[in-house]
Amino acid sequence: MVVRAFERLDPDAVLIEGPPDAQDVLMLAGHKAMKPPVALLVYEPERPSEAAYYPFATFSPEWQSIRWGLERQREVRFIDLPRSLRTPADESEALTAAPPTEPHDSINDAPSEDPSSPNAVPRDPLDQLAKSAGFSDGEAWWGRLIEEYRGASGEDNPIGMFDSIREAMAAARAELGDLRRDPGEPSREAHMRRAIRTAVKEGFERIAVVCGAWHAPVLSADALGQFSAKADNDLIKGLSKRKTAATWIPWTYDRLALDSGYGAGIASPGWYEHLWVHHDKLAERWLTKVARLMRKGDLDASPASVIESVRLAESLAALRGRSIAGLDELGEATLSILCHGNPMPMRMIERKLLVGTKLGEVPDDVPTVPLQRDLAALQKSLRMKVSADSEILDLDQRKQMDIARSHLLHRLSILNIPWGTLEDDQAQRKSTFHEVWKLEWKPEFAVAIMEAARWGNTVEEAAGAFVADQAKSAGTLQDLTQLLRHVMLAELPGAIQTLVRRIQELSALAADVGNLMDALTPLAQVLRYGNVRKTDTSLIEPVVLGLFARICAGLRPACGSLDDDAAALMRLRIDAAQVALSNLSRDDLLGAWRVELRKVGDDDIHGLVAGRAWRHLLDSGSSPEEAATRLSLALSRGNDPAKASAWLEGFLGGSGMVLVHDARLLGIVDEWVTSLPRDVFEQVCPIARRTFATFEKPERRQIGEKIARHGQLGASTAATIADYDAPRGSLVEPVLRLILGEEYP
Amino acid sequence: MSTTNTETILRDTAERQFASELAALARIDDREKPPRWKLSPWAVVTYLMGGKLKDGTVISPKYVGNQRLIEIAVATLLTDRALLLLGVPGTAKSWVSEHLAAAISGDSTLLVQGTAGTPEEAIRYGWNYAQLLAKGPSRDAVVPSPVMRGMTEGKIVRVEELTRVPSDVQDTLITILSEKTLPIPELNSEVRAVKGFNIIATANDRDKGVNELSSALKRRFNTVVLPVPDSMDEEVDIVQRRVVQLGKALELPSETPAMEEIRRVVTVFRELREGKTADGKSKLKQPSSTLSTAEAISVITSGIALSAHFGDGTLKAGDVASGMIGAIIKDPVQDRIVMLEYLETVVKERDGWKDLYRACKDVM
Fold it and tell me: In principle, which of A117, A235, A396, A601 could form an S-S bond with A99, CB 3.0–4.6 Å?
């Protein structure tokens, strides 16, 4: 429509609501290699994260105007308030208030319009107009009235259409008054008016202004007279100027779409492109496209169904009193007929259909992206040489510089820019503060950086955003906890929050208690040691607590009916959970944990797990008498010997110290072994041996010695204390003081 | 649900219950009507969704929910495809189909109830054997099915629980829906459908042991999925409305049930059904039960009955707890874990929900 109006008006200057900072790179829009969707990126070279994107699609009126003007060698200018003059306060607003994405075109003899992003403001005038016309929102109404309108008058008089839009907007402005005004709006409009005046002064006669419809009434020829040039200049004068740079970057329809978080996006770039490309048989073409996409996804979509869908969409449109079927009707017809009411297939094709996967291209000679600059700056400040040869870098994490380097390398590898690869961690095991990297720069990283640039403008920001995205798509708790480990190493506190939230979500749905237990350990570690790395632990704590509550609720059922392998796994998990909880040293958690362990220990389940549970209960302070009773019960003759020895393995597994020090337990074990009948003993012996083989050699020897001194078994630990030789002991004291520090009592 | 003129009938047909509303709509309806429709498509939608007419008559809403769905359903009946209403139990499928038939044909009694034992005769035709033996095969000996009657009279026919019908019987619908004709080979003739005939089938997609529709049959239906209510308030509204209606019909001795209690039951059902808390902050496991709005209604009704007959007449947490637990825990092992977890992590912490927590713990 904007082009039709241009053809009629033939303006000699085209002024566009866009950032004048980008005037230098504007010419590149005419470049052969430039393929929309692309975006203008205006940023501050010192602070690349303070950037604004101005995306353009083929169907954007701004893009059409630029191309039209450049092709005919007319003057093309951006006239909005430059980013360099904006105060940081309107930064957030700027992202939403600069919406050249919408396929709403407009033009007029002096000024013209285009509805500015209808979703930017709560009380959107377009929404109100739309509501009064019986539409659900401003987009739908605009789409119906302007974009889908195929009537005679639209063809004949596009300029008349813009006139009426301007009148409607003037009324809306008058009625809404200041309600909708952004704080930065007066100065933006003043700047635009000044730019128009300049153009007039320079002698252009037919000037077309492409802007948001909202601004139209104050930019018209009449308005130029109403607002004094001086007042406008005054509005702009006070603003402080900052340095900005602009570049073009490839954009995707995906990022144009609303749900990617870009405020002024549009719901369906795919649909608008469809409207842009085709002018007749819209429903037929659209539904055929749907059917083809479905067939590609191995879903049935017969031509008969397409015919039926077109009919349903049209009768729906008739029922709702609309001239042709719009996206709503087509979507509903598709769901009801082609998908048989099942939204799943719809979702499969939705993104491809509505959003499209198109990726734009920019010519090689555009300036670089901020991420590239940020990386170059970091490489310089960290004194890391970029070289295609591989070299080894040994980082000592106790040094400030090295830890910063380590963070950079970890972040880059998160972003799939594997500049450095971590060498085998043998060396690390010897000293935790060393990290050995192999550095090798490859030319294709340049592409990877461009790709990563869409995640953010600094390495840190991009890595954070990327992790957040990964966290969204990760399906299992293990993936997430793995990711968490990377994130800890890369020092991305923001991403940790996202991850933790996601872990919480997944853990709520996880049916397998084992997975929950696996997730608990790393989280507990973060919680315990997070403060050292200045992570916000308050965020993690509720997750750990929630995870813990779920483990407690499901522990006992999860321990039921386990085979040997599963029981061994569960034993390890219980061990890990025990360690994690002891590290947290929270009495309330430990108390609840002990209650669950007791339930597990008392249940008739695999001996290994039950034995293990009792061992932990004993270690964390249950009375030895009780444990002895349990052992004796578990090992009593009535029990299946295989089960009994599994219990023993669980109970003793790992360390024999408990036997060395607790004579009574040793006595019970000893009594049990000696009371076994010969044939049962033969059956159990290998299993008992397997348990005892895991003990350290000195432990085994000590146990043997204890057994040999059978008569003294009754002698308690008190005897060892009586052996203590005070004068000899005091000799060691000064050395101990030296090691432990003077303040140690 | 008015019981004034037909006091002894437990439940009257939709077209009799809402005769006055239908008449009022017909009076002012000046839009184009498809052949043999009693009302225009617009009026049918209005009848279902409720509203106030130009002459001041208030039409009560029959379906509380998305108007678009009803529009799609009505638009489908305008095309030559049949309508399949799909949804979990208790989402008002049969209710909607009954009212659609009543509004369009003025007759909601042409009904085939699908069961595992539904015979082919229920969809095609049967024979009057006395006639058959006495006179031989003739039109007089044919006993028409509701479908056959709908075809000759140009009316909407309802098929309830289509997926419970055995597959071979389901497939007899194919000819009827695609050729719009019902052959009677014994008489070497056929019944051709007149304009206005169409079929509304309902089926439930959660049911176990259903007979999936063959794809040939599926292609003859447009599917509209009736969802569980969108918003909390909407659902509370539905529950409250129906509880009051049912209370009248079942003559339960109680005042209007406490909104607070309804809100709590609906909250619990919604949270478990959606698998997350109402504030969207934490996820929950979902039980195997459907937890439809209809079940929430019955939990409240039985709670009212309990409190009226055995309690002090006001609905308390204890009265709804047993019904609620019974509705939620359908699988004694898995659902129990889900419910326990829910009680411990959500109900226990919520302000003012202590009584419900205790009541539920008692029942479990």
Answer: A117
